Amino acid sequence: MIAVLVIGVIFLLFKLFGGKSSGTDQDLVKQLIAAKDSVIKAKNENIADRERLIEEKEKGIVALHERDSILNVHYLEGEITYKKLSESIKNIPNRISHLVNNPDSIARAFADF
Questions:
Q1: Phi (first) and psi of residue 24, to 5 degrees
Q2: CB count in 10 Å sphere of residue 8
Q3: How far apart are the first and last CA of the chain?
Q4: What burial letters (b/e) apply to 76-98, b meaning 16+ CB within 10 Å?
Q5: Do 28 and 15 meet the contact criterion of CB atoms below 8 Å apart?
Q6: Mean pLDDT of the chain
Q7: Distance, CA of 50 to CA of 21 (rounded, Å)
Q8: Which residue has the higher pLDDT, 60 or 86?
Q9: DSSP secondary structure of 64-113
Q10: Is the CB of residue 4 less than 8 Å from the CB of residue 39?
Q11: Domain ranges of the chain
């Protein structure tokens, strides 16, 4: 964008101070308008590029939010599983003492497997 502006200014200076003038003042005005149009075009392209980048970043943010919600669900499921395992582990000493005191319960425990 800036490069186009610099080239336009150099071109105009070259035309103004380049020795013989090859046209009228109207030609100079047309050249000036053409240089300004090229600068405007470059700025519009820059704006379009930035808008495209913003859209891509917004899509990325949405994807990250979706991934975060999935990870939160997995975390909650893991937490529920952990609580169930914790309760099962707490009951192991009671089950062992019950199995040791009742020989018939040992037979039933093996029958379940």
A1: -90, 180
A2: 19
A3: 77
A4: eeeeeeeeeeeeeeeeeeeeeee
A5: yes
A6: 82
A7: 41
A8: 60
A9: HHHHHHHHHHHHHHHHHHHHHHHHHHHHHHHHHHHHHH-HHHHHHHHHH-
A10: yes
A11: 2-112
pLDDT of residue 109: 65
The percentage of residues in the chain with a pLDDT greater than 90, rounded to a whole number, is: 41
Taking the alpha carbons of 17, 23, 24, 29 in that order, is the dihedral positive or negative?
Answer: negative
Lookup result for tokens 């999935």: 70
Residues in the chain: 113
Place of tokens 């103004």: 16
Average pLDDT in the 68-82 region?
92
Work out the percent of the chain whose per-residue pLDDT is above 70. Answer: 82
On whether the CB atoms of residues 31 and 12 are closer than 8 A, the answer is: yes
Q: Is 33 helix (H, G, I), strand (E, B) or coil?
A: helix
